[in-house]
Each structure stands twice: as C-alpha cells, then as structure tokens.
Amino acid sequence: MARLLTELEKLPGVGPRTAERLAYHLVRRGPDEGHQLSRAIDGVMESIRPCSCCFHLTDQDPCSICSDSDREAGRLLVVSQPKDLEVMEKAGWQGRYHVLLGDLSGPSGGADDGTADASLRALQARLQNEEIEEVVLGTNPDLEGDGTALAVAERIEQWTGTRVKVSRLARGVPTGAAIEYTNPAVLAEAIQERRALYSGSQ
Amino acid sequence: MARLLTELEKLPGVGPRTAERLAYHLVRRGPDEGHQLSRAIDGVMESIRPCSCCFHLTDQDPCSICSDSDREAGRLLVVSQPKDLEVMEKAGWQGRYHVLLGDLSGPSGGADDGTADASLRALQARLQNEEIEEVVLGTNPDLEGDGTALAVAERIEQWTGTRVKVSRLARGVPTGAAIEYTNPAVLAEAIQERRALYSGSQ
Predict the structure, then answer these.
(1) pTM score, whole prediction
(2) Which of A84, A133, A178, B12 has the most CB atoms lying inside 10 A of its own CB?
C-alpha cells in the first residue's frame, strides 16, 4: 500500500490525502477495476512513443499530424513539449511541428536524457529530406526558451545556410491585457519591437 | 456621517466596512486632522489640471516631462490615461507622451466629456508645431484600445499625410510566459506576427 501511495503522489495535483482517497477507492472497487487501470497504464506506456518524424508523443508512427497530407508541409513550428503542440493546435497553426522533447540550454546546462539530441538529429534529417521553407521557433518566451530558440536557430543556419527562413513568435503585449497592469519588461519589449502602421517619409 | 460614508465608498477598494473604519478614525482624531485632509484634497483638486501640451495630469504647466529638455522630443507615445504613462516610464520610454484622457471609440461609442476631443486637437497642434518624427500608439491591446489606436492613426494620416511615422506596440507572447498556459488567441497573433531571424533565400 505504501508503494502505491508513493506512486500516486508523483501524479500532478495529488497530495498524500488525495493519494489515500484514490487508493481506498481502488481497494473498495475490488481487484478487477484495479487490474483494468494498471493494464490501461501499461498499454499506454508500451504504445506511446515519440513520432519518428516530429517527436510528438503518439501511439501511431508517423503521428496523425505528420501523416496528414492536408497540412502545410513547408512550414515547421518547433515546440519544446507535446503540451505546447496542443495549445498551438488550438491557436490554429496549419503547418507541421517538430517537438524537441526537452530544452537544450538554460540554467540546468541542458541536462537531458539525450532525447533532445535525437530530436535535433531528426530535425536535421527533415531539413535535408523535406521541402521546408520556414521554421518557426515556438519555445517559451523566457530565458531558457530563448536560449533553446537561439541554439536551434544557429544549428539550422549551420545545416542549411540561409536557404531556410527561420522566425520566432512575436513578443509583445498579449491581446486582451491592460497596459496599466502590464509588466514594464513586457512593455519595454513591446516598445522595442513596435510595428509600423504608416512608415513616414523623413 | 452617511454622506461621508457614501463618498468614501466611491474610493477604489473601499467597501462599507472600510469606509466606516476610516470615518471613525477621522472622528476619533478630532477636527484638525479631518480639516487637513479635506484641505489637502481641495488643494489637489484645484491644482491638478491636464498639461496644456500633453494632457498628462499635473500640478505644473507644462508638466515636468514636457518641460524636460533631455527627453527625445521627436517621439511621442500616445497612451489612454495617466496610469498608463506611469508604467511606460517604468518600462524606460525616453521620448515624450500624449495622453488621450479617454478612449475615442468602442462599445460605449466614445461617450466622453469632451476631454479626449480637446486632447486630440492638442495632438494635432503638436504635430504641426513640434518636429515629431514618430508617434507610437500605446493603447490597451483590446477591442476598445485597438479601435482608439486605429482612429488616432487615421487622424494623424489625415493631418500629416505620410510625413510622420506611426507605429503601435508589438503584440505577441509576453516575456516570461509559458506557452502551455498561453491563450490560443494570443498565440495565434504571435504566430501571425512572427519575426524573421534568418530570412531564407527561396
């Protein structure tokens, strides 16, 4: 029982009391329900793998996005993790993705199990084999994400010269915010990267 | 007493109970402290006026920013209200300002006491009399603020043709945010306005 509680507590949002409640629920429902859950977990653990093309976690290979011929194949959006891909889908991105599965630089010095390196090698292969016109870097707009974006941009330039267009998400004030409550650092960047509406003739 | 409570409750963050606490504090402290407070309020009410140049609220005319010769005189940042000016100062803006003191368009149809119109006329005069190179629109990144920005941009173009450069704050993901918790509408705009790092040769 202690081992089950320990494992349950590793789940996000599950503290000691929730873990106990879940464990007792399983015990009360009897062995069948427990085994079904454990088999379902095992099943997912065995079937979910990084897509061999884009490294998104998937139970089919290539994943449903890589094998969807209706997507814009010439544009790749690079994200750090599968959750970021999901929110980019909600934002309406029409192209394909490449998931790093880990950040490459940052305070942790890029400590990593090697998945990010494998993902980068796969990205290099895609840039050689697919007709990629543009790579959009969609890492987090923070120190670690910016470091990762810079590292990926430099690799792409090493691999392809200037053949492939590389861009990053716009940085600025988020739609719907109020200026008076906006962080000065965010405003400073929004001023710095301001966008011309009429360009002036002087 | 009821009238004082009503007036105190109009202050931001002051509910009935806080109003009572403030009122009884004044009563306990005796008439001198109360009169000092009321004279201080009257004094500010009489001395604070919109700057005749930029419409920032100030007790000197022109305000300390308009009369500061160290500021970049050729760039104006247009904001909706004095609070927005204050946060732009924290963000490090080096130029001058123009405060609209009200939004010009939006759901309320621009209902306004005429101050925004007076501020706009003052802006027109500044564009004619000062050597303004660029106007940056710094209204809120929401429906009402965007409507105001558009209206001001159109006026400036009517007044000056394309002589004056008009720009707006960059819109995008705010520095420090996490992609996975970012609003899809914000991400969609950040994708739309993405910034080229390497521009590609195809």
Answers:
(1) 0.76
(2) A84
